[in-house]
Amino acid sequence: MSSDPTPPASMEEDPGSDIEALIQRLRLHQPRPSPYAAGNPSAVVAPSPAAAGEQFRPRRAAVLVCLFRGGAGELRVLLTKRSSSLSTHSGEVALPGGKAEEGDADDAATALREAKEEIGLDSALVNVVASLEHFFSKHLLVVVPVVGILSDIQAFKPVLNVDEVDCIFDVPLEMFLKDEKRTSEEREWMGQKFTIHYFNYEKGSEKYVIWGLTAGILIHTASVVFQRPPDFPEQRVQFNLPKYSRECSTMP
């Protein structure tokens, strides 16, 4: 399978066909306040007696939702398939990204650094235009989607970190608003029910399943970009943060 994304061509008429107008609109996008941010009452957790004066807050991570023009003018997004040798989420589809590090100036810096490390994407090629609503992962991470526009896809020459990534591919962003090749199931976590979505995608002889947190982020991104809700019911919940515990204080 080739690791080269689809080359760009002419643009079709769609809600984001004028890339400059899309950039300006996304720059003005205001996500709703994060339920997991400092200062939000739901994000403050009670300290345990054994940790007087301390409060657990989840670690922060960021992913890069990198958009570019495909061969038919459609908006596409870069995705990776994680290495089968990784200890967590091995072989799963993901957006480039990872945990924030001390030297990162902000969420965009985290997402761009991780994209550089994972797939060799030069941050100079990416026009960061927005940060979206925060998500909460099962690993107790607050995940911030950072949207970037890759105007010159031909300038991007992927260099994969084989310890982390098996391959890179791209899909049309609008597919995450359609009820085609999609399945879902209801799950419960932290006492709250939510819907998990699965999208099947084929490219050549390769088959991918895009699901879970990655699918949720892309549904939300597509809704913001195309300014319409998905064609299917989307049940999202605000998870309550766990109380402080020794497990939380020592989590990776």
Automatic annotation (TrEMBL):
User: Which PROSITE patterns does the entry mention?
Assistant: NUDIX
- What is a single molecular function from GO for this protein? metal ion binding
Q: Which SUPFAM superfamilies match?
A: Nudix
Q: Which residues form the Nudix hydrolase domain?
A: 58-196
InterPro entries per the UniProt record, alphabetical: CoAse (IPR045121), NUDIX_hydrolase-like_dom_sf (IPR015797), NUDIX_hydrolase_dom (IPR000086)
Q: Which UniProt keywords apply?
A: Hydrolase, Magnesium, Manganese, Metal-binding
Q: Which cofactor does it need?
A: Mg(2+); Mn(2+)
| Highest taxon above the source species | Eukaryota
Task: State a GO cellular component annotated for this protein.
Answer: cytoplasm
- Coiled-coil segments: none
Q: Name one GO biological process term.
A: coenzyme A biosynthetic process
Know the name of this protein? Nudix hydrolase domain-containing protein
Species this protein is from: Oryza meyeriana var. granulata
